[in-house]
Design brief:
6% helix, 14 strands, mainly beta, 257 residues, 12-stranded antiparallel β-barrel
């Protein structure tokens, strides 16, 4: 049964190829170098609540909800692969993600964690975006990224990387292409207070609705359950849905038990 389940998951990954790549393991907003361990399923439920004043003639943007599942599918200590999907309310409806990565020290002493991946891989092609909106509904944001991370003593872990997406959909408020940017993050478990408390700040460059500065904290309520409370400050104030408060519930489980 265990081998059959693992084979099924890997088969899905191979079948979809570049399209089987939702949200991967993240900091608060942007993807991290973390990869789910083999046989571990990760359920996430995210709520993004717009906090900006209502737009004249358009009202306040709706709350965005996301429900996703990510699974680790490689049985190696120094090389991990996770694949997953997400349903985001108000869109068409499923996005895929995948990430391949190695942990810190896997390639030698003092080497950083490394990851390459993709997320928001949609199932429906869209037309070009104009003034922050698409002329035809599309979900193929297709964001690809590479990132490295290193823990620096008691300071915490620093991450840096770069991403690129679909230039037809990642645009600024005037419809100008803005499909790439840097990825930066700092995170730390606050052990001097509690091993259950984690802080993070992450940044995703660009003037599209992907570009943002996010910050917040998580509390681990159980060994396999944590909740992130954060704030996402969009780089471009003219892009909807604007700044959002976010609550994210994460639950891990062993799929082989």
């Amino acid at each position: 049964m265990k081998k059959a389940l693992a084979t099924m998951v890997l088969a899905v990954c191979v079948f979809y190829g570049a399209e089987a790549f939702g949200t991967p393991s993240t900091h608060i907003w942007a993807p991290s170098t973390d990869v789910q361990a083999y046989g571990v399923g990760h359920v996430t439920s995210d709520i993004y609540i717009p906090v900006d004043k209502p737009v004249a003639g358009a009202g306040r943007p709706a709350t965005i909800t996301n429900l996703g599942l990510t699974v680790g599918v490689l049985p190696y200590e120094k090389l991990g692969l996770e694949v997953g999907f997400d349903h985001i309310e108000g869109t068409y409806p499923v996005y895929f993600n995948a990430k391949l990565g190695v942990p810190e020290g896997a390639l030698g002493a003092n080497t950083p964690a490394l990851a390459i991946g993709s997320y928001m891989i949609g199932t429906k092609n869209g037309g070009e975006a104009r003034a922050g909106r698409t002329s035809k509904l599309g979900t193929d944001y297709n964001v690809y990224y590479a990132k490295a991370a290193e823990t620096i003593g008691q300071f915490g872990r620093l991450s840096a990387g770069y991403y690129i997406g679909n230039k037809k959909l990642l645009v600024d408020e005037n419809g100008k292409e803005d499909e790439k940017g840097v990825l930066l993050a700092w995170e730390r478990t606050m052990s001097e207070i509690s091993d259950k408390l984690w802080l993070s700040v992450d940044y995703m460059g660009g003037e599209s609705n992907f570009g943002a500065l996010a910050y917040g904290f998580a509390w681990k309520f159980a060994p396999n359950t944590s909740v992130i409370f954060g704030f996402v400050d969009q780089n471009n104030d003219k892009i909807l849905p604007g700044d959002t408060a976010t609550v994210q519930v994460d639950i891990d489980f062993d799929i082989f038990k």
